[in-house]
Amino acid sequence: MALKVFLFSGTSFEEGPVIEWYQRLIRAIVSKRWRKVLAVITGFGVLVGSFGLIGAGLVKISFFPANEPISMNIQVDTPGGTTLEETADIVSEVEAYLKL
Q1: Phi/psi at 95 (nearest 5 deg)?
Q2: Considering Cα of 91, then 92, then 95, then 97, what sign does the dihedral take?
Q3: 50 near 68, Cβ under 8 Å?
Q4: How far apart are CA 81 and CA 51, in angstroms?
Q5: How many angstroms from the chain centroid is the CA of residue 34?
Q6: What are the backbone dihedrals phi and psi of residue 44, each rounded to the nearest 5 degrees, phi first?
Q7: What's the pLDDT tens digit per position in 20-79?
Q8: How many helices (H) and strands (E) are present in the chain, helices listed first?
């Protein structure tokens, strides 16, 4: 609500200082042919420049980053009636095997 009070002094979003400034900018650009061409060339230059930054390695992108897990869950099933100490021994054996 505060944004509307400070930026949009009118009763709707079509009125206000930001919209009026944007409308003046667009009217100034489309009023002359060379300004339209300059706007298109500038936009295309920004597009090519952004691809150039990626190609030069200045901007790093990664679609599928290397994701190395830092933990693993293993479920050890033992027969019914196995004591807690026997289960702990089996888990210790599995841990020792995985640390190789």
Answers
A1: -60, -45
A2: negative
A3: no
A4: 65
A5: 36
A6: -65, -40
A7: 888 999 999 999 999 999 999 999 999 999 999 988 988 888 777 777 777 888 898 999
A8: 4, 0
Tokens 């033992």 sit on residue: 78
> Which tokens is 92 given?
């210790």
**Amino acid letter, 52:** G
**Tokens 């409308």, located at residue:** 23
Give the model confidence (pLDDT) of 69-84 as tens digits: 778 888 989 999 999 9
Q: Name the pTM for this structure.
A: 0.47
Q: What are the tokens at 13?
A: 């979003």
Residue type, 11: T
Break the chain down into helix, strand, coil percent, rounded to 5.
Answer: 60, 0, 40
